User: Fold this.
Amino acid sequence: MDMDWMNAPHSMGTTIIGVTYNGGVVLGADSRTSTGMYVANRASDKITQLTDNVYLCRSGSAADSQVVSDYVRYFLHQHIIQLGQPATVKVTANLIRLLSYNNKNTLETGLIVGGWDKYEGGSIYGVPLGGTMLQLPFAIGGSGSSYLYGFLDQAWKEGMSKDEAEALVVKSVSLAIARDGASGGVVRTVVINSEGVTRNFYPGDKLPLWHEELPLRNSLLEEASSEAEPMHP
Amino acid sequence: MLAAAQKDEKKDQALKNHVGHPQTGRDCPFTLLNSPISHTQYPYVTGTSVLGIKYKDGVLLASDMGGSYGSTLRYKSVQRLKPIGKHTLLGAGGEISDFQEIVRYLDELILYDNMWDDGNSLGPKEVHNYLNRLMYNRRNKFNPLWNTLVLGGVKNGQKYLGTVNMIGVHYEENHVATGFGNHLARPIFRDEWHEDMTFEEGVKLLEKCMLVLLYRDRSAVNKLQIAKITEEGATISEPYAIKTHWELEAFKNPATGAVGSW
Assistant:
């Protein structure tokens, strides 16, 4: 039916990525949330804070990922009070795993946990559908990730600097947005290391252009490039 | 008239036992959509074959390190062989999250066993029995652990190799295989396995089978581990890759006899 998009569940098509570098982690995501074919939110924030030092990239069902992250934030808060020090990334990832695994028949959300703690430094954990938990040097998820397997197999290197890692994240999400209809909008990144957390924002029109994409201009009538005649017979 | 026809269609829908899965479109039991009870399941991240053979000093297990997500080879460094206590090795194919949970259950079992501090320790036979009970009871509740397990161990000079799967089928043998290994490796085992093989002979046999699986199993990845368990204990090798062979004459111009064919 044509009105399917009115009732379709909110799903974050999404591209999410988390990368370790020497000193911390960089998390990245696009900003599109769709209801069927309609873009319900073109500037969503899919990188959610769980604690001061651990963040979560969410993909799949918007509702499921939000409720999982809310529960984990709630449990972690109490855990930190009891522990008397910041939570570790591993404990956070395991809480995410427990919710995903024990509710595997109802939930539809793929998550990437990233953060910094004093024991392990920066670490990234992937928790895909089903509740498997794997610690990885980098992780990708969401529908847009299909387009990144080949790219990252070639481009990811051990021991990158913070700037190299962030550039790689921005490039990756931008490439996925170019090809995945369910990903779009802006690229948000979050850098986490011993010094703290930095959020960055790369608007859609500032991202690099890829194959068959054209430079943006205000209007046909305005001069944009060296072409003199905008209209042809 | 229209309203009545629509109502009938809804009733038909309700009576249908199977519908399209909301995400994949594939066949899905209707009860799974609306019932609060856990029914069956779908595997998401899966491991493929595990092979096991008895040899002179104990048992050898082999598996690759792939975690597939449907048809995507998503994870390539998944540990599918784990030591359990001092006397056993466990290998698993199937859903990785369920295997991770099984390992947690077993680690707890071993911990409680050690806490008795009575000089006794659970051997492979006992662990196999525990796993069988675990898998079978879950199957009876229609909520299986979606795995096929290979369990190998040595205790008091007795070598042990067995398997148990998600429906509770279990047995012991001199050589076992899961998944594709059942079809591709077991015939080779039947031909070439013999009592009291040396370590080198055992590894060569396993590698021969792993190579066939690499050629013929779509979900195989070229990164494998071989694990050994003897009276002394368990060791799991570092991950490594094996050479594949493509230089056969017949591969060079396969369509010469019939242009346009493959």
Chain B is about 35% helix and 30% strand. The longest strand of chain B covers residues 147-155. Chain B touches chain A at residues 23, 32, 38-39, 41, 43-45, 67, 69, 72, 74-75, 77-78, 95-97, 100-101 (CB under 8 Å). Residues 53-236 of chain B form a domain with the Glutamine Phosphoribosylpyrophosphate, subunit 1, domain 1 fold (CATH 3.60.20.10).
